Amino acid sequence: MSDGDGDPTVFTSTSLPSDPRLLATVTNAYLGTRVYRDILHVNGVYNGVVGDTHRADVPSPVNVRMAVPGVDSLAETFTLDTQTGTFSHEVQAAVCTATQQIYAHHSLVNLMAFSITVRRSPHTTQPITVQLQTPFVPKSQDLDLHQGPDFQGAHYVHGQTLVPEVQGGPRPTLHMLWTPVPPALTLRGEEQERCWQFLTAVAGSEEEAKRSYGEGLALAAAGRLHASHAEAWAALWRGCHVQLDAPLPLRQALCGCLFYLLSAIPPRHCPGFLFHGISPGGLANGTQGEDYWGHVFWDQDTWMFPNILLFYPEAARAILEYRIRMLEGALHNAREQGFQGAKFPWESAATGREVCPEEIYGAQEIHITGDVLMAFEQYYRTTQDQKLFREDGGWQLVDAVAQYWCSRMVWSEEERCYHIKGVMPPDEYHARVDNSAYTNAVAQRSLNFAADVARDLSIPVPEEWVDCAEKVKVPFDTEGKFHPEYDGYSPGEPVKQADVVLLGYPLMYPMSPEVQRNDLEMYEPVTEQHGPAMTWSMFAVGWLELKEVQRAQGQLNKCFDNITEPFKIWVENSDGSGAVNFLTGMGGFLQAILFGYTGFRITKASLRFHPAFPHDINKLKITGVSYFGNKLKFTITKEEIRIKVAESLLDPPACPLEAVLEESGQRFPLCEG
After folding, report:
1. Nearest-CA neighbor of 129 among 66, 175, 217, 221?
2. Catalytic annotation, residues
3. For the chain, which has fewer Cβ within 10 Å, the N-terminal or C-terminal residue?
4. Can you give the residue ranges of the Glycoside hydrolase family 65 central catalytic domain (predicted)?
5. Pick from 568, 592, 593: nearest CA to 580
């Protein structure tokens, strides 16, 4: 990685990638597309029966290419500005500059828009024409679309998805209004500059679609449409600011990861907005046969969620509310397999039923249920939001997960402990194994958390929960002082992705530094070199915890093989296969910086931190860290740590904070400002 002083927030190129999967995405919490793609997707709108259900393809009116005909020398640039969430295509010719901007409006989430601005060069007077090319046809393989009457100059279609996920299940209706796109636009001879705006509004009701379109028109008429979008992004970045004094490629990767992840989260101050989760490739992807059909996995809860929670607990809560709404499906999944409680699906879509096309994963990769509950635990430890558990369905989910784990365990008389048999660990190279170290440890953590919440809510704790948590087997080799991945694992067997190393972080399973080192050294050389992108981030966090900073950076640098140019789109595997715009890999990378470099750990009693930097990083400043209703600013150098309470969001203020030095016990009160 080379040094450089360029702007890490703006990605510019004179050409587009040859692989269209690697084009920039423009999304908000409700709508998403790749630029120049003929379809867009709507959050939570799927079509197809269980194993075939996928994001419904909606024809995209924003798929428009701009060209300036009859001009010999053109200078073209394509730019993604992560600060304003805007993709731009600029054409510079002798007679004019033409700019197209494309964006999914960040605060008006039912709107996507593009604009064409033509500005003539000095000393030219002739009319200038810009051609617009669009393959748009208002038809879909997933929706039964019908044309309705025009509205305020916009065309209108509406229709339902064709096939529900389960018999009798929901078939969402969509309503779409869009500004018709002419084949050409002309700047007249007397005009110096002109901007044309094109809006698309999509909603679940005609009323909402018309209201959103009308609101967009009013903002466009006032010259405020793009400005209001950019202001919403500016507000988002103010609450989530990460500055690294580090080489440019690392800063670019950080900005790109934050941008794509923040694009996916629910908007602030929209209490009625129903969020439907985040899939591995985000809302721009997920058509049939692509990006796991847009399903929601542990990728959301384990890999993306901690980063979102650190800055935006209200968005994190919306993710948990999605899981609560899916509880009925999870209860069904457990019953279907003959167990009690709730088993969350390996792949989730509209109902919470298992929708994985391949039965083996849905049946065996049961650690997902513990992963979901770990997100609830991290949220509770960070916010102390008891209302989620007392009134909003959180306790019912916690209770059901604890019941599931107890029913899934069997007592071994021989070993005098509980076993969990016939599972697939995170390492998907191995199926139907007994006592996966990660699965059993996350089950134990689920049960301990369920007992803690019960006590806080003054609910009696079932003895079975305590017994199962205390006596579940987590495999450990006492001679070699390491954790075998499962019963019968032989050292040296290939591993697909991060598995046992997750015991250290994020599980924080109790172990000595010697054991943690042994686990890292055992699994690092046998883990698939070109496997899923989030793997090396977790090895990096492990080495940072042991203060082996250069070894950690060597692992983190492997992630750059998964980042493509020019728009910093991640691919799941470094050979280019798998999901694209792989938010899971980005989430792992962000955790390596936000939890690895800082040493942040969310525990029952505190937010701990113990920084460790590689040699080429001198300073890390993180603004907007949320803890107990406070917004904190951390400035960390190799010599010192400064902590400032930027603001207290609760009235009356949350319990007062203090920084404590663990070794000396010295305490520093933290007051607002």
Report:
1. 66
2. 428
3. C
4. 284-490
5. 568
